[in-house]
Design a protein that fits this description.
The structure holds 2 protein chains of 2 kinds. Chain A is an all-alpha fold. Chain A has helices at residues 5-22, 31-47, 55-63, 67-77, 81-102, 106-121, 144-181, 184-187, 198-220, 224-235, 240-247, 251-276, 281-294, 299-303. Chain B starts with a helix and ends with a strand. Classes of the chains: A mainly alpha, B alpha/beta.
Chain lengths: 316, 400
């Protein structure tokens, strides 16, 4: 890559020149200002995973950058007032809309929007004292509006995490009081068992745990694309069309993939249970049928084995 | 794989997902949820680029691995993707700048989803085109048939137009008259060869000679249409009515077959007459000068083609012999006027040869003006085909 660096610099400079020409409003940016940004984007998104990319690929990559949005972001970062005016005029609605979607209330949305503008203006200072504007992280690869929404969503998650940690800390204290106040009689207060036959319940529980582990392991061993689909569809409760949209495929394609995933998971779980856990094939098939229907009935014994946080209760 | 087995896996996955908050941390970790706090999340630019499908394939694969295991980043990407809209893209083997190959384009064209609608649509199109082509053929065939019928109708005698129910004609046609009319029509429509024309013109000249004795023409001829010139050396400067029938066709009409058969006994007599007329004609030819097409056309080199022409004349005679015999006695009544067939023309019985004769050609301006003033003349002219001599309001008209 070092050998190609001068050559890549030439390609970047030429690409930046074309980018300035493509931009509807380049806010009088000099090419010297744009070249480092373009090069950083190139290294982050292309050369890191494809260091031997051809010239044609590099040229196409640069030509696919959002020229107008990138010039706007760079100009705003440099304090161009005209650029800021344009940014506020064009994207204040986007910020407000994204904040409303991420926040639970109108007040929270307003606070979130204000935080976003502060982040964009770089009111926070970095370690070196320079303003840390979020605009510096916009690469021009995606649209500026999409980037703004992502910034709002991330900020909302960060704020939620902070609030969640605070809430969890309080709940932990309650749990400690509960644990300290419990006597031998109360130790089992949270335990509920509906198993009529303790021995069968224990056997079923063991089998279920093994099956769950086999299933979890099979999920983990899937390809990233397949695993993402499983997470989107089953764990995030998305519709197949929505899951396909995230993956960038049609709903029918996602459906076919899911069917293949079912086959592969089944085979993988059967292999693990039969080869590693010593189950027989009939036992495996019977367990599949039984646990697929009756898995919920075993949740309560599992709940009895550990103290659950209040927010996790009721998810079943 | 069987559907029930797929359903079992589906059910297991759903239950596992619904319990993800309650399972042990170990299980969560094994599934891959909740990356450790030290693992780096995707930044906003990476998330938005991924959601909009703006990443190179190699980079996208790397981020997919993270998203599969990071709930937060995955949820943000989901929100962004749904907000941005579906970005359906084809899987790319390598991001080399080529968006699609001809193979991919061909496969997309023949994709089941496309064929599902394209094949029926194409079938309908083919059926529609075939149907229209067939209809066009039918129309053309019917048009051709109609035209043929019209042509055959035109060749039929106009007597078909006579409506006995109409009072103004009052014509009663008998079978011989019908046959004669048909023969005349056939003769008129089938005259083609110059030789035949020559023969007929000879015949006409002969008949003109005959008619010169019968009809007297006025000195002032107001005819618009030039008729065949009459030999100027005639002592009586009369305009001879060219009422002679058209030259006989070598193939007379069907209706004249019986006429020909009838006329056979008279062929010999006709032959004699033809010889006599030929002799008169030759003498006439020697006297005439500038007599027009008849004379010119009928002036073969002396003695050379007489035999041929005579033969043709005989053939013509044979075909018209029967009709002529009937012509002599044929009579018709049209609009209360009686006409007799004389030498191929319908002659008003009220006509006297001494009366001045005005010649009018059908279709001429004079004719149109005449029938505009006197519509009944038009009716008579329509009823009677060929040359018609009628007397109207004290004036004699020859309509040809």
């Amino acid at each position: 890559m070092n050998k190609q660096a001068p050559h890549i610099d030439i390609l970047v400079a030429e690409g930046a020149q074309r980018l300035l020409a493509r931009a509807v409003n380049h806010y009088s940016l000099a090419i010297e200002v744009l070249v480092p940004r373009v090069k950083a984007t190139l290294e982050k998104y292309l050369l890191r995973d494809a260091p031997a990319a051809t010239d044609r690929v590099i040229i196409d990559f640069i030509d696919q950058l959002q020229a107008g949005d990138l010039c706007l972001a760079v100009a705003c970062e440099r304090g161009d007032s005209a650029a800021w005016t344009d940014l506020v005029e064009r994207y204040s609605t986007t910020v407000r809309s994204a904040a409303r979607s991420a926040a639970g209330s109108e007040d929270a949305a307003e606070d979130l929007a204000q935080s976003i503008w502060a982040e964009l203006h770089g009111l926070r200072l970095r370690e070196d004292g320079r303003p840390a504007s979020k605009l510096a992280y916009y690469s021009g690869r995606g649209s500026f509006a999409g980037w703004l929404r992502a910034v709002v969503a991330q900020l909302a998650v960060d704020q939620h995490r902070k609030q969640s940690r605070l809430v969890q800390a309080e709940d932990d204290a309650d749990f400690d009081r509960m644990a300290a106040g419990s006597s031998d009689g109360n130790r089992t207060a949270g335990m509920v068992s509906t198993a009529l036959n303790p021995e069968n319940a224990l056997s079923n529980k063991q089998e279920r745990i093994e099956m769950e582990r086999a299933l979890a392991r099979s999920i983990k061993e899937m390809t990233d694309e397949d695993r993402l689909l499983v997470k989107l569809y089953y764990f995030d409760n998305l519709r197949l069309r929505e899951a396909g949209a995230v993956l960038g495929v049609h709903e029918a394609t996602a459906s076919r993939r899911l069917a293949r995933i079912h086959d592969e998971l089944r085979q993988s779980v059967e292999h693990i249970l039969t080869k590693e856990c010593g189950w027989s094939k009939p036992e495996t098939e019977a367990a599949f049928a039984e646990f697929a229907l009756n898995l919920e009935s075993d949740v309560e014994p599992l709940l009895a084995t550990k103290v659950m946080a209040p927010e996790n209760l009721g998810r079943d | 794989m069987k559907q029930p087995e797929n359903n079992e896996i589906d059910s297991l996955l759903r239950k596992l997902a619904s319990r993800q908050g309650s399972v042990s941390a170990e299980l969560n970790q094994s599934i891959g949820n909740e990356l450790s706090a030290t693992s780096a999340h995707l930044d906003a630019d990476e998330l938005s680029s991924y959601a909009e499908g703006a990443l190179p394939e190699s980079t996208r694969v790397r981020y997919t691995s993270h998203l599969a295991d990071c709930n937060d980043c995955r949820r943000i990407v989901t929100q962004l993707s749904l907000a941005f809209g579906p970005q359906i893209k084809e899987p790319k083997g390598s991001h080399d700048g080529a968006t699609s190959t001809w193979k991919q384009a061909l496969m997309a064209l023949f994709a089941p989803a496309v064929l599902r609608y394209a094949v029926p649509a194409l079938t309908l199109l083919v059926v529609a085109v075939a149907f229209f082509a067939w209809r066009q053929q039918q129309r053309e065939a019917s048009f051709v048939a109609t035209r043929q019928a019209q042509v055959s109708n035109d060749s039929q005698p106009t007597q078909g137009n006579i409506d006995p129910a109409k009072g103004n004609s009052g014509v009663v046609l008998d079978a011989p008259m019908e046959r004669r009319l048909k023969t005349e029509q056939a003769q008129k429509s089938s005259a083609t060869s110059p030789a035949d024309k020559a023969g007929v013109k000879d015949q006409k000249t002969a008949e003109e000679q005959k008619s010169a004795e019968t009809f007297a023409t006025p000195s002032a001829d107001t005819s618009v249409v030039k008729e065949r010139d009459i030999p100027k050396n005639e002592t009586a400067p009369v305009s001879q009515p060219a009422y002679a029938p058209e030259p006989a066709s070598p193939r007379p009409a069907k209706s004249s077959v019986s006429t020909v058969a009838k006329a056979k006994p008279q062929v010999e007599d006709e032959t004699k007459l033809a010889d006599a007329s030929a002799g008169r004609r030759e003498s006439e030819r020697s006297r005439s000068s500038g007599s027009g097409e008849v004379t010119t056309a009928n002036a073969p080199p002396a003695g050379k083609d007489d035999g041929r022409q005579q033969k043709k004349r005989l053939e013509t005679r044979a075909s018209v012999a029967g009709s002529r015999a009937d012509e002599q006695t044929e009579a018709r009544t049209v609009n209360g006027r009686q006409f007799q067939r004389r030498n191929g023309a319908w002659v008003d019985t009220a006509y006297k040869s001494s009366a001045p004769l005005t010649t009018v050609a059908r279709g001429s301006e004079q004719y149109r003006a005449l029938i505009a003033d006197e519509p009944e003349i038009g009716v008579i002219a329509k009823e009677l085909s060929g040359d018609v001599i009628l007397v109207w309001k004290g004036r004699a008209y020859r309509i040809h």
